[in-house]
Design goal:
29% of the residues lie in helices and 26% in strands. The chain is an alpha/beta fold and 321 residues long. This is 3-oxoacyl-ACP synthase.
Length: 321
């Protein structure tokens, strides 16, 4: 008897209509800080980003991505057994706004909601958790949906602010024979706990929590595990399955060209697809949004998606095309 294979059955994405270019007055503090080094030297490469309008609903945007994924899979809300994912920054500290996505989509009362608080690999971890539930025989279909609107929670004097954009992406996971899930690998760097975090920063003068990178430990984490961890993780995963680099398309977390160019040089995939120039760093949503744009154009035998997150942790997912 042949074991069932599980796959990404449908992919969807949604981005806000508002476009913010690098010439926006909001970025004037960053232009003045150009050439000062430190964090400001680490983040560059996008031309614009999408921004959720004031009063705009991130849960509605995420639900739109989820609905698109279901349509792409040829399924309906009645087919969804579980909803994995995350919405950030959520309306409340708890519960996560993923419950509002469940409501917006009209999912059934029996559909379990599983918020995955694993910034920034919420999407990949959601796919892995859904896959494990499928293999256990607990469910038949899962929807993984993530939405990010960090443009509302950024200190625009900080270097990482230049890249941040908003967006949402989703996939349906179930039994299938295209974009099949092969394996995953992960590393944890708990010694970096606190080096990068979202929290209250009274010194910023802002009334809401903001993301921040510690001047010493945060920059060190970026330059060490951030630069070199993903290539090592991908190499380990490919070697385990005897997959050659020339048979791989790479998609990744897209925080900065500094990271992405280094990863491309070290991993050397046949193709490296991203949406960074147009959409910037959509934090949790970059990979599913990029996948939604390119999934019908993949030309290699395998796809690798690799991400990293604060905590710190990294995850790579190997998919057979």
């Amino acid at each position: 008897m042949t074991a069932a294979t599980y796959a990404l059955l449908g992919v969807g994405a949604a981005v806000p209509e508002q476009v913010r270019g690098n010439d926006d007055p909001l970025f004037e503090p960053l232009r003045r800080a150009a050439g000062t080094g430190g964090e400001h030297a680490l983040f560059y490469g996008n031309r614009e980003r999408r921004v959720l309008a004031p009063g705009g609903s991130l849960s509605a945007l995420t639900a739109k991505a989820g609905a698109a994924a279901l349509t792409d899979a040829g399924l309906t809300v009645a087919d969804v057994d579980r909803l994995y994912g995350y919405v950030s920054v959520s309306e409340f500290i708890t519960p996560n706004e993923l419950y509002a996505v469940h409501r917006e989509m009209g999912l059934s009362q029996g559909t379990l909601v599983v918020p995955v608080q694993a910034d920034f690999i919420n999407f990949l971890m959601g796919v892995v958790l859904a896959w494990e539930a499928l293999r256990a025989g607990s469910i038949q279909h899962a929807l993984v949906a993530v939405g990010s609107a960090w443009t509302r929670n950024i200190d625009y004097t900080q270097g990482h602010a230049i890249g941040i954009g908003d967006g949402a992406g989703a996939v349906v996971v179930g039994a299938g024979d295209r974009l099949t899930l092969v394996d995953w690998a992960a590393d944890t760097f708990s010694d970096e706990y606190g080096a990068m975090m979202m929290g209250a920063r009274p010194e910023s003068g802002l009334p809401h929590p903001t993301y921040g990178i510690a001047p010493t430990s945060g920059v060190k984490a970026f330059l060490n595990s951030g630069m070199n961890g993903p290539p090592r993780l991908v190499e380990r995963l490919l070697a385990k399955h005897g997959v050659a680099r020339e048979d791989v398309t790479l998609m990744s977390h897209q925080a900065s060209r500094k990271l992405m160019d280094h990863w491309a040089q070290e991993i050397r995939p046949r193709e490296y697809l991203d949406t960074f120039e147009d959409y910037g760093n959509m934090v949790h949503a970059s990979m599913p949004v990029t996948l939604a744009r390119f999934h019908r154009e993949l030309r290699t035998k395998y796809l690798v998606m690799v991400g990293l997150g604060i905590g710190a942790h990294q995850m790579a997912l190997l998919v057979r095309v």
